[in-house]
Design a protein that fits this description.
Layout (H helix, E strand, L loop, with lengths): L5 E8 L5 H14 L22 E6 L2 E7 L9 E9 L16 H17 L3 E5 L12 H4 L14 E4 L1 H6 L3 H5 L5 E4 L5 E4 L13 H6 L5 H5 L19 E8 L13 E7 L4 E4 L5 E4 L8 H7 L14 E3 L8 H4 E2 L7 H6 L7 H12 L6 H16 L3 H11 L2
Antiparallel strand pairs: 1-4, 1-5, 2-3, 3-4, 5-6, 6-8, 7-8, 9-10, 9-13, 9-14, 10-11, 11-12
Helix pairs in contact: 1-2
Amino acid sequence: MRMEGTLSVLFYRTERLDREELIDPTLSICAEQGLSSETQTPLNPREITVDDENRVTVYDDTRQVRLNFDIDSWSGPVGSVLTISTDAEGLVSAEESLDTEYTGFARDLVETIRRLTVEIDPYYVSSYNTWVMNGETAPTPEAVLPLETPFEIERLPWLGVYSEPLIERFGGRERVLATPAWKVEELDNGSILVITTRTPWEGYHEKLPADRYLLDGADRDRATGTDEQTPLTDPFAELESGEFGADVCVHRDDIASEFVDEDLRLERVYVDEARDLRRTDVDTFVRNVVDDAAGETADIVGRMLADLPADATRDDQMVSSLLHGAIPPSFVRLDDPNDENVVTKVMDLDVDTSKHDLLVSLGRVAQQADFTNADLATMERALDNLQDLDDVDGIDDWIEDALL
């Protein structure tokens, strides 16, 4: 997604800090991280000028980084003492692999947040971008921080740091450290840093696995739609050359840690003699069938596009979202290119529930030893009945209660 707007990172405490406790250490850490003043390199904390509103701008090359210190007012019981803000554009390189560590400014920013957390020991660190969140800050400090009220929060920030009281409210240290997020790290002061996705705000308008896990109380397997005991397999590996099927794919450029419904595409395909999947209508290449699904996830994903035919164009190349071992061949197989099956019926639903998660949940039902072809037919009829309902909210509630 495009990164626009302004990233703001706020540090909240339960007690106010004075200038010596807040401004001086912050500027020292910024200087040690290589930030500079506009006219002086490196930044000298003793000589830099903070304006009358306790604000100062420092620089990472040409990028402005604005520091806003709040040492005069206090709203309590928890208040923001420091806000770091910068343009979101170019914050993270979209060209790099989703598994790689940050480089450049993003790396330096996260390290600065780590060091400031240890230095000023905030109760909570939150990040937001009002452009991404339609003008709203989410979660709002008022919803997250009051100590006298139950801990209520609808969404996790893209980057957050949680102190011991919040860790306990999330179910304890071990649980928080197991959060299904791009990065989870225990800091030197005992707080835990959670970055939900490598690309900031990716998939933010739907609940992410970290949200479902920490906020909804789901276990890790349910939050991610995967589990360590279920190996990856390609359901198309059971299909012979010439057989038809329905795959659910994302474009190779849209690969992410979470399958977002907006990126999913239903592809009606057949298996050719080279063990490639090709579209039934236009006969273009989609991906390789993965007959050997052993090894790390990244290796298995790579095998889907490892052997490209001469006519394969980048625009046509896709990666399947159906390699979770719970999804059986019977869900994808079609007797005729225009037939329907579990995959096509799920993709046709007009619901907010994650369609990938729904397919995995249905697949777990189909894994039961006593599951028969008659049960499969009943499942397909149930999906037809869901499609006929007018109450979208009711559909999502029924799916959540019955299947997820």
